[in-house]
Amino acid sequence: MKWCRFQSGKTVAYGTIDGTTLTEVTGSPFESYSKTANTSMLSRVKLLVPVIPPTFYAAGVNYREHVTEMAHRRGVKPEFPPQADVGYRANNALVATDEPIVIPKDATNEVQYEGELVVVIGRRADLPDEVLQEIDENIRVSTGNTGTTLCLAINYGGRTELVDAVRELNVRVPPGECIYAIKPVLVAFYSGRGSRPPPRDTIGDAEFQRSIQSSDCRYFLLLGVTGLAFPEPFYPASRLDRSRLDVVARWNSKVDGTAMAVLVHLRS
Questions:
Q1: I want to staple 211 with a disulfide (CB 3.0 to 4.6 A). Which of 67, 79, 196, 199 is the partner?
Q2: Which domain holds residue 239?
Q3: Are residues 46 and 13 in contact, defined by beta-carbon separation less than 8 angstroms?
């Protein structure tokens, strides 16, 4: 179902669109609603901004795990700001379909604009055909844009690759074998099998190696995320003997192709 917010004369309401026909509804798509008998040709109404949100504030660079992860990908040391960078987005910047973008008279010369490149990640197979057509059309018309990327995460759940990796453990790891993972709860929830966290990064190398050698765990699920106890992505990959490691499986990001999870086996 395709929704819109429109104005016809003095009437402002939500409506549903079927082809070129608009049907007025009472209520909104965010609560209970019912269709009315009032219909119009879509070309005869004015489409408005779909929603009018309040002004919202955004606190940037305030999540230490993200700072650490992105610094790791760039190969640099993470630098944490003394405080969050707080900005806001005002709703008077919203414009409806085909409306001109008005730059305030008192604006400086530093007016920035950028074309959005639309990228879709996640699972889209269960979406209705009309939604898939809209997605494909937006991807097509934005292909030449070189500004920021609008990433639509559909049925994605944040880190789908990590979930996929955990779900495949029962196929990739023989029954009864022990697994090291920095997120045992994630492993238990999605695979139904137990795991244990690796030795903490705060212990010395000698103690770390003794702990690994005396353990019956030989599989490591290395995740490209961090945690309070494990601030290094893919921990403990950097402390393992690479000459004894076999890569069993790898799951890459659907956005940029970088590794999100790697399952390795440590030979005795």
A1: 199
A2: 160-266
A3: no
Residue 107 covered by a domain: no
Q: Left, alpha or beta for 31 (phi > 0: left; psi -120 to 50: alpha)?
A: beta
Q: Which residues of 6-30 are buried (b: 16+ CB within 10 A; e: fewer)?
A: beeeeeebbbbbeeeebebbeeeee
Q: Residue 66: which H helix or E strand, with range?
A: helix 64-74
Assess whether 43 and 58 both reside in one domain.
Answer: no
With respect to residue 109, please indicate whether it lies within any of the assigned structural domains: no
Given a contact cutoff of 8 angstroms between Cβ atoms, the answer to whether 27 and 19 are in contact is: no
Q: Is there a domain that residue 208 lies in? A: yes
CB-CB contact of 218 with 264 (8 Å) = no
| CATH number, domain containing residue 202 | 3.40.190
Distance in angstroms (rounded) separating the CA atoms of residues 10 and 41: 16
Distance CA 87, CA 54 (A): 14
The series of mean pLDDT values per 10 residues for the chain, 268 residues long, is 90 93 92 92 92 79 72 81 78 83 80 68 72 84 76 62 86 92 87 89 89 91 79 88 92 79 92
